[in-house]
Fold these 4 entries.
Entry 1:
Amino acid sequence: MTVRYRIDRLFDGRQMLADRVLTVGGGKVVAVDQQCQHADVHLPGIVAPGLMDLQVNGGGGVLLNDCPDSAAMARLFQAHTALGTTSMLPTVITDSLAVMTAAADAVAEARRHNPHGIIGIHFEGPHIAAAKKGAHCGDQIRPLSEAEWQLYLRDDLGVKLVTLAPETVSCAEIQTLTAMGVRVFLGHSNASADQAQQALKAGAVGFTHLFNAMSAFGSREPGMVGAALLDDSSVAGLIADGQHLDYRSARVALRCKGADNIALVTDAMPLVGSDQQRFTLVDREVHRQGDRLLAHSGELAGSLLDMGAAVRNAVLHLGVSLEQALRMASAVPARALGLEALYGHLRPGAVANLVWLSPQLRVQGTWVAGRRQTVETSAH
């Protein structure tokens, strides 16, 4: 079925256009034109490319590590689509091979029904540095084994993103992962700037939650943060919740890398889209304290952020335009995954993943491959 939406303000991925008609059919964008009198549905406010999240640990009361099955995956996805996300990488953090495999199986099953919503999987660990493990389980940190190589070779998972520490995974292994089609991000690492730069040369394309759980910038050793800020081609994920980093630090990153190399991410946990106040993260209890999620030992353990709020925070606190913030939440992550032909814009041929925002940037609805998903409730 073809539907023509009359839109007051349409962001097509490049510019904001006034009074346009967006024609959607067969799950794709068919046309954008100005023949407003022939529209089927009027959407006041703003319509933009759907938001893409590279790091979703949980939502709707579900933690992927604890519930790696298709029913939990559906709940997780529904919770986030209500808050602006239309495509995501469900993320399994450092855990056993059995949990990693079960999560991969759940993603493969979800993709059979929802390939444009569940676009792949993010393995955040287990090949990370104990010194920068954060809330990850230290007992499960390990080097690459044949079993993980076989898991990363699977061809039914969509995009495979692996976060690793370059001091624990060699440049030769990074090159092999890249040749296999894996997108390698650097993170949870105490690597030197030299080690990070060598990993980039070997094929790494990004950094997981910049500033967090990585070697800091210093006057004599720039660390992984310095390597990330200096590199002009890699993408850095940024948790813009005001808790994981000071907004001034985020603005420094934007000055160094530019908005086209910063991807907004959530690092969301089960309490997003849920009334729960606490949950168990692998081997520890995590509880809500205001706008933060804290483990019993005091460290941050994921976030309460959703992608709609990330866009609002970027506009309010990071000094970027709405257009830049929307690109940071759609086109930039799509490019980081090599999916820029299909996502992050609303030109003819793009997948019709859409987010509808009020003038106050509150999520009014989302579409995945042309299908209306949900409407945000009063929770936001």
Note: Residues 50-336 form a domain with the TIM Barrel fold (CATH 3.20.20.140).
Entry 2:
Amino acid sequence: MIRIRSLLPVAAAALAACGGAPAPEIVQVGLDSLPAATATFDESRGELVLEMNPIDIPAGSADHEGMIVTPIQRVDVPVTGFVSGFRVEAVDANGTILPIARLHHLNVIDPGRRELFAPIALRLLAASKETGSPSVNPMLVGMPLWEGQRLLIKAMLHNPEPQVLPGVKARVVFTFRKGGGPTPFFHAYAWQLDTKFPVGGDGGIKSFDLPPGRSETSYEAQPAVSGTLVGIGGHVHDFAKYLEFTDATTGEVIWRGEPILDSLGGVKEMPVQRFYRWNRMGVPIDRSHTYRVTVVYDNPTGQTIPFGGMGVVAGLFLPARGTRWPGVDTTNADYRADLANQLMDGNSVGEMAMMHSHHVHQPAAGEEEEHDDDAAAAHRH
């Protein structure tokens, strides 16, 4: 059962921490029955670590990698402060950091605030193996978190080895500084816009079948508030040509990103652009305008690839001066459907179905990579 309670003390502290700027609307979605992840703040290192409970990753086989989706877990922020960067990791039972390819993705969700472009829970962070370690100037920009703020965390893990990989923990390491000082000067919030917003397909899956040849998929929405776009990046699958974010009202292309490929032609990473300069903070976003995300693919296989396509842009956003970041309407149908999807066992619905049909082969220890055209196709799908 979802329990809602207002966070008046948290909101008051947030107002003080923001130096008089409006605190965001926050409601706390209880979800106390969920397993608890661990949050640790190390002030000397300037890091806030959210670490999930250990889980065994099944063994891989000749046909496909071992894969598992973690149970969704709750975690409460231990201290008020500001995020200026992050990295995601997976560690084994001995605490050794595993190759980044073992972590397909990790999501941190704020169920107490809404997305900029949809009335669903805010994706505070959605990182994958191609995300890298993005950061901003911590004196200039920070993403606020508040003591007692409840977050949800979920991940998918890979194992190409022929034996079970036991006790693996996924974690996100935030570059973090405590609040109370005069900086950062600007308080930014995460946002994303997906081609399958707001809730996706069955089980919340936001990938889609990729037809042969060239194809284009898009989605349009209006933002809940006006403000400034500080930075942007995105996520696509193999065979993507580009991902684009456009002001559909004016026709202006705000950002276009072409994937950076690895030696076999698979997507290695997506470019990230920071819009702030010495004389401006970024690109204006107007709540009266409609914005569009578009992803273009060119599938050369001659066959439809189930769940082979995906396209999502994400970044940081500064609400306009005097504007409060919106909370959530927990009675909204899209909000409730999206939250229900997140609470599902990802090993029996969307995410795992996607990965069985769309997975990237990573060579096991001692296995040589192939470099001919047929191997490249196998690498992609």
Note: Residues 4-366 form one domain.
Entry 3:
Amino acid sequence: MRVLNALLRQGLPLVLALLAAGSGAQTQELRLYTEEYAPYNYTVKGRPAGLSVEVVTEIKRRLGLSVPIEVVPWARGYRAAQTEPMVGLFVTARTAERESLFQWVGPVSATRAHLYARRGEQTGIRSLDDARKVQGILVPREWYIHQDLRGRGFTNLVPVAAPVDAMRMLLANRSVVIAMDESTVAETMRLAGMVSDPPEPIVKISEALLYIAFSQGTPAALVQRWQQTLDEMKRDGSFAMIHQRWLPGVPLPPSSHKP
């Protein structure tokens, strides 16, 4: 009896989450969306891969979940996480604009965003105010960088579907600058077929912590279990091993659950 009671106590949050998930929709299941955003999440031979994919996969394993990970355009996943129940979207930059839109699990990593130009290009850009004058800034649609610059009143943004599209357009001289995360530049270059002369950062835009974002229609108890499991991974060292394998030498994100 004591063993049974202990098991019930340990599994109660997850049981409650599963019961809550079924209360609104009889067969509602969790869906997990991600995008092409190397090295955090991207497709390799038709299968999701990357730092955050490994973290999410390990959380699923520890929770006994068999939910597939779907790679979709960011705008589609972002819209689903705002409008549909039982949706997880990763990785998602946690910003003030997004804070109330989702329930947050993380952080999974940290990143900084810059404006980049072709190496040696004389853009004349020395500040973000200078960047307002260029013909167009390529930026992945509805990324936190896009939302940030739009919120600052930039009217010369050129949204694209994915970071690799922005990189290819920069290579083809379709624009003089792109807005991108520093931790994704090298892998995005590779995917775009750029083997040398990486673009160089010219102006810093912002910093962000990256999370797994759950829709507000996801039971809070289930989200809590995801956070607890991620915290366990950070304590036992498995999270650090994954993070350093994908981002060697990059410091681990802070342990705080808030940006």
Note: The CA atoms of residues 234 and 240 lie 7 Å apart.
Entry 4:
Amino acid sequence: MATVDGVRYAADGAVATLTFDKPGRSNAMDVPMQARYGALLRQADADAGVRAVVVTGAGKAFCPGADLGLLDGIAAAPPAGGGGHENFRDVLAAASVGVPVVAAINGGCAGLGFVIACSADVRFAAAGAKFTTAFARRGLIAEYGVAKLLPELVGQGRARDLLLSGRTFTAEQALDYGLVQEVVPAEELPLRAHAYATELATYSAPRSMAVMKRQFEREASLTLEDAAREATALMIESFGRPELAEGLASWNERRIPKFPDR
């Protein structure tokens, strides 16, 4: 599929890949690009043939954040306060869709791009890739819910360090912080991310992954007892689902499972 509004979509079997591709601006985002990203993720989520998604960038950057030209315009003529600013739903689309999303961070990842990476389910990074929250160094605040997302990934102390300082750190440090799950040579990143997404699409039940994503969001705010109670109800419900029967049959028969769509 051709690049539209700075985002390219391609499907390979059960894995879809969304690529930020805005070479003149190093994949920096404007509002149409944000909207396109959110729309494509929701499109992939609605496609029964897609069971995992990879999000990455073209060239040497993943996404360096919002286009600074856009920020210049906002600084000159600030928008009105109050409600109606709903584009955060596009930025955080990876967290709201049922399909698992793997961020393949191939290069510079900052600001808005950093939030997008944090909202993915799993993050792989190219060796040497640079990260920064950047907000405090641009006179901004912790945008799009990252003050909630980041502590859940790296803990309160490290999240406050990264947000308050806005300092640059490497993929290797991100791995040490727990922000990314793997660091691989840059030339191996696309294949590694796609292979991981293919493993999810092949061996994990789509409905199980979608339910788990809802659990991650909901149970984080519950007491352990309430989380266990809700999980038990979901477990009992799953006993009557075809996914369990297929999961047991494929295990006993030593074959690849054929799970139904979500």
Note: Residues 53 and 101 are 5 Å apart (CA to CA).
